[in-house]
Amino acid sequence: MTHALDPDFVRRLDTVGLDPAHPGDPAEAWRRLHERFGARATLLDRYALEAAHRRVRPEELNADDRRRLTLEVLTVRTPGREIVPGSQRTASDPIEVVAYDQRWPVRFAEWRARLHGALGDTAVRIEHIGSTAVPGLAAKPVIDIQVGVGDLEDEAKYVPAIEGLGVALRLREPGHRLFRPSGDRPRTMQIHVYRSGSAEERDHLLFRDFLRTHPDAREGYARMKREVAGRYRDDRIAYNEAKTGFILDAMERARAWAVGTGWSTSLPSIRPMEPRDAAAVARVHVRSWQAAYRRQLPDAFLDRLSAEIDQRTARWGGFIAEAGYREATLWVLADQCACLSLLRDRRLGRRRRCQDRAPWRGRPA
Prior knowledge:
The chain has 365 residues and is α+β, with helices and mostly antiparallel strands. It is built from 14 helices and six strands.
């Protein structure tokens, strides 16, 4: 049996007193590994033990076996874990790792604006995490968003608001709630809610910032992800589990780096945007109301108004870069409301220029 197992896995079996050639009951063997090694005892270890017990290769385990083993491992690792009924996806979601896309920060900013508008002060912090938050890093094209709240258990303050944006609460587990598109909606983003100031919130931000500042770790992570994506294309949890060893090792380096540099999550939570990204986000708002009113107003009128907004968008960029996204988003949304008021007045035969109705007069010139 030992020739089919990874040398590091063999060493860990030896450490817990199991014969790698005959480790016995695979479920009990994995529990012993978990008790000794914690998060380093992964689902892939459970696959390997089950496959060896059956005298097959891990990739020969069928989908039903993998689902059963996944549930077994997650139940042991995270007691109290609950899948929310009705939140399942009907669309296929194969793992695909693609080159970094400069549109990812813009897509995050769009969702951040929506979340801030829906949650208000309930959201203590809204951050872009995961690989799509690291410039230059290959990733699955799924934006990971982290929302920090004061009381995770008070779901009434945030669950309806987030679900109102078209995503479903998928998972409850101690310290964490996961939202994602359900049914056949494209899986382009997912939202993780944690208690503000929790260790989980801090670790995600630290890992992101460590990868942003360490090209060697970033490149190694990209190589590893591409490799395991090919191996576990149709097994999302196994794909994530395959990254565990790298992430744990990187986090050891990251914590040392944080101590040495004074890195802290107390740094400003709302960081300035690049003017280019800010302009792109503003244009999303322009397109939204333009599409909504295209049938009710002459094209020439909307085109002139759109051109005016484009001119002001160029000025917003500098303002956003200076003031940060939180405040700027409020003014962008306020301006959108002013434009909608203008369109309403136009239908009533009263013409007013958009800037005469804007509540931010004098904000940027």
